[in-house]
Design a protein that fits this description.
The chain is α/β, with parallel strands linked by helices and 247 residues long. Helices cover 41% and strands 24% of the residues. A seven-stranded mixed beta sheet has the order 3-2-1-4-5-7-6, sandwiched between helices. It starts with 6 loop residues before the first helix and ends with a strand. The relative contact order is 0.17. The mean pLDDT is 95.
Amino acid sequence: MGTPWDAGTYDRSSEPQQAWASDVVARLEGIATNATVLDVGCGTGRVTETLLALVPRGRVLAFDASPDMVALARKRLGDRAEVWCQDALDLDLDKPVDAVLSTAALHWVTDHDRLWVRLARALVPGGRLEIQCGGEGNIDGVREVIEAVAREGAPELLGWSPWVFAGPRDTESRLSRAGFTETRCWLEERPTYPKDVAAFVRTSILAAHLDRLPEERREQFAAAVLAGVRLPLDYVRLNVSAVRAAN
């Protein structure tokens, strides 16, 4: 079972994710206006909505592993995009697309060797891949606070993480094996000041941790983590640009 998301709170507190995403969407400018684009891990559909303007004569597809996120995305997008619920590792399109985009999502996928193969299969030869997700070093300070709080009263969380924060070198190797070329991978520090720190930390960072705890212990754990974090949150983004090989 995937991470249970509070989609409404995420939607209201995700200004940082939207800011990061705007840079990635800009990398697709110039794409054919009749192209088909897939948004992987679409969340509540805010980024998906911006893709519609890039391909006014094309199609926008989007999916997310969270039913609650998908429900909110469908409400936002109506029939302007095709939205469904699916795990990224199960992706198997009937027809490949011209471009795949994903923002602030793929660090939640635990098997990156399989992930990039799935995304390659989703693209036509020559299709473009534009990705941004948590990368090596992401929220290291926050993770230290989580581990310290876990030592004091949440032993089931000690040494556990729901994320894969990969680095550029390993990612480039995986992309090459999956059939990508023209690959660029780089890290970018994005110090983050959420407007509502409590909502952001609980929803965007601690959702999976809280789900592993009994309900009666969740608030105490979240409050202890919030007491220990300091701004700016030390976000590091892994950026990926690549092209599906022609053969």
